[in-house]
Amino acid sequence: MFRAPRACLLLLGLAMLGSCARQTDAFQPRIIITEPAAGSVSRQNSTVVRGYAMDDRAIAQIRVNGQPLTLREGSRKIVPFAFRTSTTSNRADYSIEAVDEGGLSTKIALPLRYDPNPPKLEITKFEREGETLRVSGVATDDVKVTSISVDGSKLGLGASRRVPFFAESTGKFMDIVVTDAAGNKVSRRVQ
User: Fold this and answer.
1) Do 133 and 64 belong to one domain?
2) Which residues form the signal peptide (predicted)?
3) Are residues 84 and 30 in the same domain?
4) Distance from first CA to last CA of the chain, Å, rounded?
5) What is the domain-level CATH number for residue 83?
6) In angstroms, rounded to a whole number, what is the distance separating the alpha carbons of residues 53 and 43?
7) What is the C-alpha radius of gyration for the chain, rounded to an integer number of angstroms?
8) What is the Cα–Cα distance from 191 to 188, expressed in whole angstroms?
9) Cα 103 to Cα 60: distance, rounded to the nearest angstrom
10) What is the DSSP string of 10-28?
11) Cβ neighbours of 82 (radius 10 Å)
12) What is the enclosing helix (H) or strand (E) of 6?
């Protein structure tokens, strides 16, 4: 008469222990790039990419364009990585993949741009009226013009591949500096 409840309790206990032994891995690894910033442009054709991969259990492997990186010693839950890029063209795409011990993987694309060329500055009109100087021009770049400064003050213009501008100043000359997305600069003194 007590056998049926004991058998049920025994089966229930075994089922509970069985569920403890096998846990499913439902957390896919995460990849975070700390540098360079997404969409950034570099003046050098070689850049160091830094970041880390993390998982609730352990990262088993990190691959860049299919090639495995050597993982540092230490914790496998948060794994820092770094690699150096090298490109001969003005654009390179890298694929970064993290695989956890359960076989789950995450892959992200990292597009990088290389811009060794400074922007161009064309003065289209220059006027002098007493001590007042007025200049109009166009700044262009193969990637993006990010700022135009006149006598050290940035003009409030949007970033684009082609940026027309107008500035007015006082004095004997006007210094104009154009900067592109990679930090390349061109400057001109107008007098």
Assistant:
1) no
2) 1-21
3) yes
4) 109
5) 2.60.40.10
6) 27
7) 29
8) 10
9) 8
10) HHHHHHHHHHHH-------
11) 13
12) helix 3-21
Contact 134, 167 (CB under 8 A): yes
Distance in angstroms (rounded) separating the CA atoms of residues 161 and 99: 39
User: pLDDT: is 46 or 83 the higher one?
Assistant: 83
CB–CB of 155/165 below 8 Å?
Answer: yes
Q: What percent of the chain has pLDDT over 70?
A: 88
Instruction: For 52-95, write each residue's pLDDT tens digit.
Output: 999 999 999 999 999 999 988 888 899 999 999 988 788 888 99
Q: Which of 114, 148, 171 is the last residue of a domain?
A: 114
pLDDT in tens, 96-112: 999 999 999 999 999 88
Evaluate whether residue 7 is within a structural domain: no
Closest CA to 176 of 160, 43, 157: 157
Of 84, 99, 114, the one marking the end of a domain is 114
Tokens 């409840």 -> residue: 5
Residue in 158, 161, 165 with CA at minimum distance from that of residue 138: 165
**Closest to 47 (Cα-Cα) out of 100, 91, 101:** 91
With residue 94 as reference, give the H or E element that holds it.
Answer: strand 91-100
